[in-house]
Amino acid sequence: MSLDRSVRWRALDPAGLEHCHVVANAGDTRIRGAIITPDHGLFYRLKLDEAGHFRTARLERTDGKVFELFSDGAGNWSDDRADPLPDLRGCIDIDISATPLTNSLPLWRCDWIIDQPQRFAMAWINTDSMTVQRDEQIYTRLDDNRFHYAAADGSFERVITVDDDGIVLDYPGLFTRQS
Question: How far apart, in whole angstroms, are the C-alpha atoms of residue 159 and residue 144?
């Protein structure tokens, strides 16, 4: 994947704004973003390896709280003190609560067949509490630009619309793209 572009979203619930920039090439993918929510501002940096596997994240809120997460790309995780996070074993991708950008990570990495669901173990980061937990998610490609997203426990689902680069255009009730 080759990509070098900026993207903006408006968050709908709760209201907010995000601006991020994605640079992807044969060597890696780097993403930087800034989010403004009613409760805080947040800066984030993500790095994926050449296979599209998550490697590092740094989140820093304007109140000074910092959260860092590391993966070897094969499903083994650690925190900023290099302490292992066994509850995340087997997760390849992350999902940051305050941005739709991380929904693109499994979309970019996988081969897709229409109407064939794929299940992912995600490291879900709650930006309000600055904590991480395992979250099982299911994506099903509906057509060239729409994916059905569902929490594996059935508690949440949406049909997400993406552009030709696999970046979210519309996440009903949560995010809508501005540019």
Answer: 13
How many angstroms from the chain centroid is the CA of residue 13? Answer: 17
- Report the distance separating Cα 162 and Cα 173, nearest Å: 15
Q: Measure the CA–CA gap between 60 and 58, rounded to whole angstroms.
A: 7
Distance CA(48)–CA(35), nearest Å, equals 20
Other CB atoms within 10 A of residue 97 CB? 14
The 10s digit of each residue's pLDDT in 127-144 is 999 999 999 999 999 999
Give residue 101's identity as a one-letter amino acid code: L
* 23 strand-pairing partners: 4, 30
Q: Map tokens 């860092």 to a residue.
A: 68
DSSP element (H, E) containing 126: strand 118-126
Indicate the pTM of the whole model.
0.95
pLDDT in tens, 2-40: 899 999 999 998 899 999 999 999 999 999 999 999 999
Residue 1, pLDDT above cutoff 90: no
- How many whole angstroms separate alpha carbon 41 and alpha carbon 149? 27
Q: Which residues 6+ apart lie within 8 Å of 75 measured at CB?
A: 88, 89, 90, 91, 92, 121
Q: Which CA distances in Å does 164 have to 1, 83, 146, 161?
A: 12, 38, 10, 10
Task: Report the alpha-carbon distance of residue 124 to residue 135 in Å, rounded.
Answer: 6
